[in-house]
Specification:
Blueprint lengths: L2 E2 L10 H8 L12 H14 L3 E5 L2 H12 L5 E5 L3 H4 L4 H4 L4 E5 L8 H7 L10 E7 L12 H14 L2 E5 L3 H8 L3 H5 L4 E5 L10 E5 L1 H13 L8 H13 L4 H16 L15 E5 L3 H10 L2 E2 L1 E4 L2 E5 L6 H18 L1
Parallel strand pairs: 1-10, 3-4, 3-5, 5-6, 6-7
Antiparallel strand pairs: 2-8, 7-8, 9-12, 11-12
The chain binds pyridoxal-5'-phosphate.
The site of pyridoxal-5'-phosphate has 12 residues, from helix 3.
Length: about 350
């Protein structure tokens, strides 16, 4: 069977998770009557230290709500230049939110207080007023980077001083929590709204959760309905989320260890540029001369990998991959590297 290292989104629900889904108590969630969705939302809000939460179809929908709730139409939202919101959400911030993104070039996705201050537009008719900032933790395109908690606290405090709202794209917030040893609620403390994905390393088939104040969630619920995201007996999906929050968080440390092992081996291979010291979570980015050709050769030998750009490969570990798979992948990637060199 192929070793699928393309993404942690390829994870399949375990038999125990499927059982939890099959046995979930259901109701109509648009009427607030699905007890399992309600329980997931309460659990998530408590975990992240927010007043309320909303179950949504995807991380993209959660981030879209983050735009709609935090940045009024015609205003500007600051984000890292390699952020998911800027690159991979089909332009939704502009199309649906009517918001102008202000991208910043950063080190590892960590927007500094100085950068934030400098990015605020003056009160002048040439500029869209700056109303919010989006942060990403872990940072996907920066290699699964984990925000140092003190940097995150500092930039959130600066945003508050400047009157900016903060949305945290925590698609992999629990990876950040496990890697840094800081509880997710502390990582979320400085943000007004937070999204996290159930469908990635946590292993659920579908879903994300958007968290914030009761007022923000009340507003987000109308936007979710407008986007077509009002789901009915969604407890069948929320049950997987509840199972994951109880059973799938601590094990993310295994994915991080596997990614580090993979990175250390790849760093020794000819023609491969990789910094194992930068691998903090479950992603390994590797520079090669011809990424599509390298990826095709890996795939042919049974290691599925994603070419992020013409010279970059991305390997992602997850619960479908164990230490033996990593050793087998290392052997195969090593053969491809030798052949390519
Ligand atoms: C995957 C991802 C998302 C969006 O998630 P989907 O559920 O695929 O829409 C948002 N932000 C980051 C950083 C991601 O990696």
């Amino acid at each position: 069977m192929a070793i699928d290292l393309r993404s942690d989104t390829v994870t399949l629900p375990s038999p125990e998770m499927r059982r939890a889904m099959a046995e979930a108590e259901l109701g109509d969630d648009v009427f607030d009557e699905d007890p399992t969705v309600n329980r997931l939302q309460e659990t998530a809000a408590n975990l992240l230290g927010k007043e309320a939460a909303l179950f949504v179809a995807s991380g993209t929908m959660g981030n879209q709500l983050g735009v709609l709730v935090n940045a009024p139409r015609g205003q500007a939202l600051i984000a890292d230049g390699l952020s998911h919101t800027l690159l991979y959400e089909a332009g939704g911030a502009a199309v649906i939110g009517g918001v102008q993104l202000l991208p910043l070039a950063t080190e590892r996705g960590f927007i500094s207080s100085e950068q934030l201050r400098a990015a605020i537009a003056p009160d002048d008719p040439h500029y869209a007023p700056t109303s919010a900032v989006a942060l990403e933790n872990t940072h996907n395109r920066h290699g699964g980077a984990v925000w140092p908690p003190e940097k995150l606290r500092a930039v959130c405090a600066t945003a508050r001083d400047l009157g900016l709202r903060v949305h945290l794209d925590g698609a992999r917030l629990f990876n950040a929590a496990v890697a840094s040893g800081v509880p997710a609620r502390d990582l979320a403390a400085g943000a007004d709204t937070v999204t996290f994905c159930l469908s990635k390393g946590l292993g659920c088939p579908v879903g994300s959760v958007f968290c914030g104040s009761a007022a923000d969630i009340h507003e987000a619920k109308r936007w979710r309905k407008m986007l077509g995201g009002g789901m009915r007996q969604a407890g069948v999906l929320a049950a997987a989320g509840l199972y994951a929050l109880d059973n799938m968080v601590e094990r993310l440390a295994d994915d991080h260890a596997n990614a580090r092992t993979l990175a250390e081996a790849i760093a020794e291979m000819p023609g491969c540029r990789c910094q194992p010291g930068m691998v903090e979570t479950n992603m390994v980015y590797v520079g090669v001369a011809d990424a599509p050709a390298f990826a095709a050769a890996c795939i042919q030998r049974g290691v599925l990998v994603h070419d992020t750009d013409p010279v970059t490969l991305r390997f992602v570990t997850h619960h479908g991959i164990d230490a033996a798979d990593i050793q087998q992948a290392i052997a195969i990637i090593g053969e491809v590297a030798r052949d390519a060199g």
